[in-house]
From TrEMBL:
Protein name (Swiss-Prot/TrEMBL): Cell division protein FtsX
Organism name: Streptomyces violarus
Organism classification: Bacteria, Bacillati, Actinomycetota, Actinomycetes, Kitasatosporales
Membrane spanning stretches: 21-41, 179-200, 221-254, 280-299
Family of this protein: Belongs to the ABC-4 integral membrane protein family. FtsX subfamily.
Domain FtsX extracellular, chain residue ranges per copy: 56-160
GO biological process entries: cell division
Sequence ranges assigned to domain ABC3 transporter permease C-terminal in this UniProt record: 183-301
Length: 305
């Protein structure tokens, strides 16, 4: 009987404040969709970091004849065979190095033609103008400075370049966008909480006669508050379900179909469905608990029971 009464009161409350209930559902749905999106964005950035940082190399570029005439780092002339052997030996001895690959001038010229063959500059280049280099794969990409310290400024070395620096700029931009999404999410959550509190206050005020009678006949405080708390929880749960739907639809149309980024951007290792599905229980739990707690504390302040 009591459960039936509570459920009937929930239905009455939702119908009486239909407009505000709808506003609560929409604001919860949008804020939690942004919440889930920011979590997925963090997973995507982490996945990309793990994928690309595992592939980045440190490049030690060696001086050629052209550099000897124009580059101060190569003032002592082009790299010699003895210098190349010594560099290779020193690299092999370094504990941070996983693999060393030598690229000759001919190989560098071939790779340049493959990548930039349509460039006007490509027709004027010759293999002897290209730089020999050692491409070094590190066991830990963060240890770039060890290579730079050991070889920067050495005779025969033109420069030491770390590809990770280029990726850091990209990931910095992605992280900035993620924090912007979190800021919007936080604002939407505040709006949702304010709407929930106001909805509960209006509902409690409109039923103050009923709650007064219940208090006179000895109903417990929790029994009086339960319908209001559950109204907010139901509205929040509906919003959370919509947020889950938004995330599933976004993943389907943006990555797999529609925009089909997984096909157009083959170089990006996108997160899978498992990453999305693991976030849905958290979103649903938040959508249920957040409105219920907001309603509970609002009732303690505005409903004298």
């Amino acid at each position: 009987m009591r459960a039936q009464f509570v459920l009937s009161e929930i239905g009455v409350g939702l119908r009486r404040n239909l407009t505000m209930t709808f506003a609560v559902i929409v604001s919860v749905a949008l804020s939690l969709a942004l919440f889930g999106g920011s979590l997925l964005m963090s997973d995507q950035v982490s996945t990309m970091k793990g994928y690309w940082y595992d592939k980045v190399n440190v490049s030690v570029f060696l001086c050629n004849k052209s550099d000897a005439e124009s580059d101060p780092n190569c003032a002592k002339g082009a790299v010699t065979d003895d210098q190349k052997k010594q560099i290779n030996t020193d690299l092999d001895k370094m504990g941070v190095v996983e693999k060393v690959t030598y690229e000759s001038q001919d190989a560098a010229y071939k790779h340049y033609k493959e990548q930039f063959g349509d460039s006007p500059l490509a027709s004027s280049l010759t293999p002897d103008q290209m730089q020999e280099s050692y491409r070094i794969k590190l066991k830990d990409p963060q240890k770039y400075q060890v290579i730079a310290t050991a070889f920067d400024g050495r005779d025969g070395v033109q420069s030491v370049q770390d590809q990770k620096g280029i990726l850091d700029n990209l990931f910095g931009l992605l992280n900035g966008m993620n924090w912007a999404a979190r800021a919007v999410m936080a604002l939407m959550l505040v709006v949702a909480l304010m709407l929930i509190v106001n909805t509960v206050r209006v509902s409690a005020f409109s039923r103050r006669r009923e709650t007064g009678i219940m208090r006179l006949v000895g109903a417990s405080g929790f029994y009086i508050q339960a319908p209001f708390i559950m109204e907010a929880a139901v509205a929040g749960l509906i919003g959370g379900t919509l947020a889950c739907g938004f995330l599933l639809v976004a993943r389907y149309f943006i990555i797999d179909h529609g925009l089909a980024l997984s096909e157009k951007l083959n170089l990006i290792n996108f997160i899978g469905w498992d990453a999305v599905l693991t976030k849905l229980p958290l979103i649903l739990a938040t959508s249920l608990l957040m409105p219920a707690l907001a309603a509970f504390f609002a009732l303690r302040k505005y409903l004298k029971v």
